[in-house]
Amino acid sequence: MGIAETFHRFFETGPWGLAFERLTSAPEPPRCLLVKNGSSTELLLSQLPPCSAGSLRIVAISDTHGKHRLLTCPAADVLVHCGDLLSRNACVLQNNGQNHRKGRAALRDFNQWLGEQSQCRTKIVIGGNHDATLEAIGDERAKEVLNHAIYLHDSATEVDGLRFYGSPWSRGKSANRAFQAEAPPAMTSATLEQHIDVLVCHCFNEGLVQAARPSLVLSGHAHAMYGILQTHPCIALNASICDKVYRTAHWPVVIDINVMECTAQRIVR
Description:
Blueprint: H1 3-12, H2 17-24, E1 31-36, E2 39-44, E3 55-61, E4 76-81, H3 101-116, E5 120-125, H4 132-145, E6 150-151, E7 155-159, E8 162-167, H5 189-193, E9 198-201, H6 206-212, E10 216-219, E11 227-230, E12 235-238, E13 253-258, H7 259-268
Parallel strand pairs: 1-13, 3-4, 4-5, 5-6, 8-9, 9-10, 10-12
Antiparallel strand pairs: 1-2, 3-13, 7-8, 11-12
Helix pairs in contact: 3-4
């Protein structure tokens, strides 16, 4: 990374990133990335077609890093956030990995924003490696703080017949180490027996995908991998909103998932 890029990244990330980006960028019409038939199309939200018959519309976002208020999300049955709600755990310099006042305030603001997304009927949220306050307060308190969403931590929920499983696990070498371990957590046999239609994971991992055998994988973490990751044996998407210098360069990802087709795939699996 060059000097100019490093300088830019310093001002984009951290608690001041939102204010810096608002001051240095002109507003643009809201867009999304529509994924259909294994390919993607960038669209203005005003051009987004209605949800396919017999399907649920899922809007996926990830790695907003405190810049969620710069987003405009399209209407959806389910809004999914794949982790890294915060940037460096809302610390000014290095992520201290602790539960602290600024981190809690940032989580409350994110939850308020979720509550304002009335165009999205259900919200699902997992943590990421920048979300140390979320890890430190524990699952029960996290569910209370993020009460406008279903919070998943190596756990599952069902929405209109589709089963979502969420894991905040990732691997990395930076100071942002929340929810990180050398290997992803093993899924219990009880979880696998109930099937998983949508795997929500902060970091894409082939082992998790092979264990879950979902119809759709939603992830983030790797900012430069935004978009479709693969189309076999399932569709896998990276929904990172921020790019490598933490600028909100990407858009929410929209995909319509057919409930009947998912049910048929469970029988095959």
